[in-house]
Amino acid sequence: MDMTVEQTVQDFIQRVSAYGGKLSDYFCGMTNNVKRRSKEHGIVTIIAFTECSDKETARDLMRQLKTAGFDVDSDIMSGQDDSRFVYVYKKSILSIQQLIRTVEIDFFKEGYTENAIDNLPEKNGIYACFACDKQTKDGKYQNLELKYIGMTNDGFKSRITRHKSEDHANWKKQIKETQQLVYIIAELNSDILQSVEAALIYCNQPPENTEYINGYQGEYHTLTVNCKGAYATIKQNNTVTFK
User: Which domain holds residue 162?
Assistant: First the structure.
């Protein structure tokens, strides 16, 4: 954003003036993907958008657009860390302002212990860490306890290797000597990975997570994440609404 927040507000006002009506006839939102978002709102034409330097600047712009008289997404404090684009379109009877989405993810049956982390694929997606008995039964992990849920945009192997060096020592202090840590993964190439992660954390409350434990934040007002192949301690159906 080359202009200041105040200048951008005036620029939006000038741009929508050519379309007529009151400022409240125009909806402003923030996202990490304007092209995807314009389709999700229904039949709309994005009149203007700007990329802010960070999420906090985007929120500030949204507040000032609301003060100016625009209809602004009530979920100003939601969004992902990369939700830096602010946009405006003229509302119609066909446009949808409050967005809802459902995502399906499929956890692999294979689990990865600490000794098998090098075997993890460098794919993107969601992962979960469990504590379970070191002794398996019929090749299956026993007495699983969910410890952590995360996401990766730079590969499961790279991300979980960092957990091994930075977090495992502390996590092991919270489990029994007869237990081990094991990971399961679900591949997902998407620009809403952080939203999916937030929904799963809030619904499942893993004890080693701190962010999103007290509330969901994401690209959608309501997000449902359905987990196929989920282990017993991860809910199969996870629905969250930003409040």
Answer: 101-241
The DSSP secondary-structure symbol of 78 reads -
Helix axes 5-17, 55-68, angle to 10 degrees: 50
**Within 13 Å, how many C-alpha atoms sit on residue 46's CB side?**
19
> Quick one: how many helices (H) and strands (E) in the chain?
6, 11
Instruction: Say yes or no: 122 and 93 in one domain.
Output: no
Residues 6 or more apart in contact with residue 20 via CB below 8 angstroms: none
How many domains are there within the chain?
2
What confidence tens digit (pLDDT) does each residue in 51-65 have? 999 999 999 999 999
The two three-digit tokens of residue 102, written as one number? 């459902």
The answer to whether the CB of 203 falls within 8 A of the CB of 142 is no
Helix (H, G, I), strand (E, B) or coil at 194: helix
The answer to whether the pTM exceeds 0.85 is yes
- Core vs surface per residue 65-92: b (16+ CB within 10 A) or e: bbeeebbbbebbebbbebbbbbbbbbbe
Residue with tokens 């993810």: 105
For the stretch 127-147, pLDDT in tens is 999 999 999 999 889 999 999
